[in-house]
Specification:
The chain has a 4-stranded antiparallel sheet with strand order 1-2-4-3, sandwiched between helices. The longest helix is centred in the middle third of the chain and has 18 residues. The chain contains 6 helices and 4 strands; from the N terminus they run ααβαβαβαβα. The mean pLDDT is 96. The radius of gyration is 16 Å and the shape is globular. α3 packs antiparallel against α5. The chain is α+β, with helices and mostly antiparallel strands. It has a single domain, classed as NADH Oxidase, CATH 3.40.109. InterPro entries: Nitroreductase, Nitroreductase-like. GO terms for molecular function: oxidoreductase activity. It holds the Pfam family Nitroreductase. Belongs to the nitroreductase family. This is Nitroreductase.
Length: 169
């Protein structure tokens, strides 16, 4: 593979075990810059990206999110919020931005794991914890951090021939 973007997409895996290493603010800003460039319905861009590096806040988020305990060990947590009063396609908008974060992070050799947070049991607690404005909805939590390659599980994926059809089903 000579195309770096394709390589990053094909090699990306969910990471749930991180090493203790800070992520520079410059890298985090670059990753969020990629997230804000994702497509949105009617170009509403009704989102906010909260980057959390504070250990105490990450620890509380990890304790609230049943499937996100590893957030505590990650270098950062990115919370994606969408203003549901302004967005026409909030779930799709947040998903596109989340994917951009995963691909951008991989280009910096950072691992990520997507924790669905749309109307989940942990969402209200986290919104309260971070003083989220009333009109914003928590859509996604994303752990992000450095990791050791041997700690990453390589789940099997279906073959292309099992999921791709041409012209008609």
């Amino acid at each position: 593979m000579s195309n770096k973007t394709i390589k990053n997409i094909k090699e990306r895996r969910s990471v749930r075990k991180y090493i203790d290493k800070n992520i520079s603010g410059e890298i985090l800003e670059e990753i969020i810059d990629c997230a804000r460039l994702a497509p949105t319905g009617n170009n509403r861009q009704a989102w906010s990206f909260l980057v959390i590096t504070d250990a105490e806040i990450k620890s509380k988020i990890a304790s609230y999110a049943r499937y996100g305990k590893f957030i505590e060990e990650a270098g950062a947590c990115i919370a994606i919020f969408v203003n549901q009063n302004k967005a026409t396609t909030p779930l799709q908008d947040a998903s596109a931005a989340t994917e951009n974060i995963m691909i951008a992070a991989k280009s910096y050799d950072l691992g990520t794991c997507w924790i669905n947070s749309y109307q989940k049991e942990h969402s209200k607690k986290i919104k309260d914890l971070v003083n989220c404005p009333q009109d914003m909805e928590l859509m996604t939590l994303m752990s992000i951090g450095y990791y050791q390659e041997e700690d990453v599980n390589m789940p099997s994926k279906k073959n292309l021939s099992e999921v791709m059809v041409w012209d008609k089903f």
